[in-house]
Structure formats: structure tokens, C-alpha cells
Amino acid sequence: MTRNITSGMATAVSSPTGDYCHLYEFQFSGGTERFTDASTDISWNSQTWTALGGHIGWDCIQETRLIKNQNVRVTLDGVDTTVITHVLGENHIGRKALIYLVHFSDGAVVADPQQIFEGYMNAPFEIIEEMGDNPTCRVRTRLVSKSAKLLKFSGI
For residues 123 and 94, what is the distance between their CA atoms, to the nearest angstrom? Predict the structure, then answer.
């Protein structure tokens, strides 16, 4: 599948300065939450994307021409417990999720972010706790592509 990027992003990519991060937008029942894996908050499109102070990551996004449930697992790891409590308290199944790649410098977006995933939150949040010398807690869910709506059966 071919990808097109804006001329601004093409210029930013060839620049020797700046850094990259991801922007995550989740449309929960209580409103839209925006997070970034950058070390500082990012402002773009009149919105603020909150740096979580931990790790937010995702599996490799696989693309195919077949209409099937393309999916990606998103994991929050080591983030503030207030964020985790808030996320777990929201209704999210079937609600929209977006992931962008952005080039930024000194906390400012250099060029329009490239949308790399658009789909829906389709699974409950899982909580994985690991005990030991350094106890950790991870929260993850699965996002499915927009084509998953085509395969959904509606009840009567």
C-alpha cells in the first residue's frame, strides 16, 4: 500500500535536527483523550497531547488487502496511576482510536503529523501485574482497523 506524505513532512524528515514521537487519540465515552510518547506535552491542531511520563507503545501494524480484522495492541507501561484509573473507568469498546507519527523540534510540531493508524478500540483493557524486586503494572488493549466494522454482525 502506497503512502503519501505532505511536502512539509518530507522536508522535516530530511532535516538533521528534531525528533520523532507518536500521538495517540482515544475517543472514550467521557471525551477524547490525547497522549504522546514524547518526553514533553505536544501542541498540534489546537489540541494538547499529554506526555504520560512512562511508556506507551504498540505492536507492529500489519497491513493487508484482505478485509479482515487488522489490529494492533497498545500498551501503557509505567504511567501515572491516575491516567490508568481514568482509562479503566471509561467506556471504550467500538470507539475511535488514531495514531500519528510526528516530527517535532523544541516541543513544537515541525510538519503536519502523518496518520499511521485509524480504527476502533475493540477489546477490554487487560491489566498485567508483575511482582518482584521492581513491581510493574501494564495496561493494554487491542485496536482494530476501520474494516472491522464491515465484518461486524448486528443483532436484532
Answer: 9
How far is 23 from 97, CA to CA, in rounded Å?
Answer: 11
16 contacts: CB under 8 Å, gap ≥ 6: none
Which uninterrupted H or E stretch holds 82? helix 81-88
Residues forming beta bridges with residue 51, ordered by sequence position: 36
Residue the block writes with cell 502523518: 114
Q: How far is it, in rounded angstroms, from Cα 25 to Cα 32?
A: 7
pTM for this one? Answer: 0.77
Tell me which amino acid residue 135 is: P
CA atoms of 24 and 47, how far apart (whole Å): 12
Q: What single-letter DSSP state applies at residue 15?
A: -
SS3 81: helix
Residue 61, classified by CB atoms within 10 Å of its CB into exposed (0-12), middle (13-18) or buried (19+), is middle
133: exposed, middle or buried (C-beta count within 10 Å: 0-12, 13-18, 19+)? exposed
- Torsions phi, psi for 9 (to 5 deg): -70, -40
Model pLDDT for residues 47-88, shown as the tens digit of each residue: 999 888 777 777 766 666 665 657 788 888 877 777 777 777
